[in-house]
Amino acid sequence: MDSLRAFQMLPSWLSVSQFRPAYKRLILPITLIVLIASDVTREVTVTTLSDAFWAVSSYVAFTLAIYHYISGFINKESRIVNLYRTSRDHQVFFAALLGALPGCGGAIIVTTQFVSGRVGFGAIVAVLTSTMGDAAFLLLASKPDIGLAVVALGVFVGALSGWVVNAIHADDFLRPKVSNLAKRFQCQPESVNGMERKAINLQGAFWKWLLIPAAFIAALGSFQVDVNQLFHLPEMSIEWLGAILIIISMLLWSLTKEIKDYESTVAEDKKQVSSHPLQKAAQDTNFVTAWVILAFMAFELITFFGHIDLAATFSGWGVWMPLMGLAVGLLPGCGPQILVTSLYISGAAPLSAQLANAISNDGDALFPAIALAPKAALVATIYSAVPAFIVGYGYYFLFEL
Fold it and tell me: Of 188, 256, 288, 395, which has the fewest beta carbons less than 10 angstroms from its beta carbon?
């Protein structure tokens, strides 16, 4: 209470909303600045942040920009959703396809369609099984060949799971009564204050001007070109530039939303339908980047201070790794799933764990499912864990043991 009174007694010019305890996202960029300021951790921090920006964020932003531009020409509601209303089998297949779309939009559409009575329970199991959420963007941008294979596998497993569920349950299995849905469908628009709106707009401007140059430098790095030498720059110049840019993007991201509960921590920020594709790409990119930084920095700092090879340590877990990926996948939200994918990309987690996580995770789609049809969401999540267990351990025993 004393600290609260002290805060309230600050001069008015210091008591601005973005420094309230609710803006806990500021912890991330401030921590990064402290790590860079320290002589002990400066080198590992700059190198890690540079890798996160050039090798991950730049590719994710470029991939997301293309995705949002293309999705702007496609009306999912009229072009795709209407197709799967013709039969139970078609519903399941198209639901799996919608779930395979990177992000959580397709899965959220099917979830609300199930609650409103337009599709059956098999469709919601199919979409929750096939979706990877925002982790799909990260995997497709970092390892496109593996990413496409995992997405295709998700469609196959999701459709198969949905068809099996259709054979067991009726379409209205665990669907809540229509009379109980009226209040739940009345979503209040999220209030955004002036500072948050400015930060959101600056995120879009940041990536608008940096998207092409960053993608170009990232491509050079992927082809093992020494960018510092190519442009006759002092040693570590491009690394410092990447670290500075990623901290700026995290500062902007930290001021765009208050953290009030678990969902606001692990779920992507809500975007306006009318927003420019680059604006949507910027918001998604910074959300993904924040969780990538958490994974990368934790990996590097544990290795640095503890002299521990996490890749070797996790490999010692062996048979437990697919179960770890599956267990994290049961958590709602995209944040924990991005952590698992980041560990896979960095070599700390095997592909079996990534596969189990990709199939078991429901991303942000689980939040509206829990709110609108909690019993159906719980059972559908348990059902999606079964194929995740089979695929994860099947790959482990066939290729990793």
Answer: 188
